[in-house]
């Protein structure tokens, strides 16, 4: 396996003059080809433990029976002597085992940072991390093959938001907690999707690797750490060295729980940028599927019923488009067919940035004020999640 797109215009533009250049400058590294050789095998590796559990449960038993079994071992610990299948036992014993390297206090630093970003964090997740991710054509093929476009963006956004909010609270990741149970379901959903894709579709293994492979997973969760911070910096959010380290540590542990080999998960921005750089050498630029996913995300503003009146929804759409153009490279916006905002809306990101710079002068002065910012930001995020839960169609099923 070799880099395919290192000499392609989309790769060169991203890393020479776009957001990629910003990442390289921030990390101050020169990518080493040995990193590609180290990570490349992951493109054809998957979460075997998760796949075996799905084969023993959801693909073998009635749905209710399989769900009850997973729920049972998610809510309470499993023992070595448990009378159940070996695959279930291995899976839950691995998830219950807290690795020697995990530092809960450091992970909580990362969680508090996520919470204190408030609405800013949600904007970045949607308009930078998620939308920008659609420009990696091969990464998104599982979404296309599992019918994500037909299911609509409202449900998909609600699921992503629910996952992110729950796993980024303080002390959230203890075995059998609500966040832990959500990670179990997400991990098994990945395995179920992967097995169904391989069974029912004409998957291009040579170009796309395994469906939902380990390197794609690392790149995805780098979006919640490295790319998340990059976007926040564009909105004027200051990030301390401790917060940065804490955020990487938090997502390393979440990635471990999701079945990604821990030794490959980045612990700092240098490692994150390096592996991300080489991962993009095997990702083609956004294609027609990418544009369709982007349009579905924009359309979600108009389809969602959180805001009652059509003019409110149109306004929200324009504000998100202004953020897309502020955060993403221009050619990516063009490829994803995101309309350029009118001048009246293009000032919105500048207003948000100015507000953040002012508020941080107040709330980053001491620990007490910082805690207030964490509490306020967390409430903002939970309120948005509650709205999405309330307004997501109740009859939706995968």
From TrEMBL:
Segments forming a coiled coil: none
Pfam families: MPAB_Lcp_cat
Classification via InterPro entries: Lcp-like, MPAB/Lcp_cat_dom
Protein name stated in the entry: ER-bound oxygenase mpaB/mpaB'/Rubber oxygenase catalytic domain-containing protein
Organism: Kaistella jeonii
Domain ER-bound oxygenase mpaB/mpaB'/Rubber oxygenase catalytic: 139-341
Tree of life domain: Bacteria
Any GO MF annotation of the entry: oxidoreductase activity
